[in-house]
Amino acid sequence: MERPRSVGIAWYEPGDYARIREAMAESGLPESYATWQMSATQVEREVSRSGVAVARIRIEPEAFLAWCRAKGTAPDAAARAAFVRETHEAGGG
After folding, report:
1. Does the residue 1 lie in any domain?
2. Is the pTM of this model over 0.90?
3. d(Cα 65, Cα 2) in Å, to the nearest integer?
4. CB of 29 closer than 8 Å to CB of 77
5. Which of 86, 83, 88, 49 is nearest to 66 (CA)?
6. Of the candidates 16, 8, 20, 6, which has an alpha carbon nearest to the alpha carbon of residue 92?
7. How many structural domains compose the chain?
């Protein structure tokens, strides 16, 4: 399988983090924004080092929840991944 030239990574703003954790109770997101950010930044660096460009795809809570309602899906980790992929493929970020 060919490696993609770029991938999207879910990204949260500090002010959105508590709301997104509340909306995605089964997401596995750490309690602390700082902990999440440190982990996400590490993943971003590792992917970049492999030669794949990384696009930060902001997940704004209300837009994400509206997207989930429109798709008829629960706001969980799988939905988050699909949202990021769809947004990235559409050129968002």
Report:
1. no
2. no
3. 32
4. no
5. 83
6. 8
7. 1
